Amino acid sequence: MEDKGESNHVVSHIQRSSNNISTHKDWQGKLWIFDTGATDHVTHDLNKFSTFYKIKPVTVRLPKNSTVIAKYAGTKYFTYDFIIYNVLYIPNFSFNLIFVQSLIKDLNCRLIFSNEHCQIQHNTSYKTIGRASLLKGLYYLDNCPSISEDYLPLNIAFNCSKNSVNVWHHRLGHPCDSVMKQICKVFPYVNDSCKDSCEICHYSKQHKLPFQHSTTSSLNCFDMIHTNIWGPIFVPSIHGHIYFLTVVDDCYC
Question: Is residue 246 part of a domain?
Answer without folding.
Answer: no
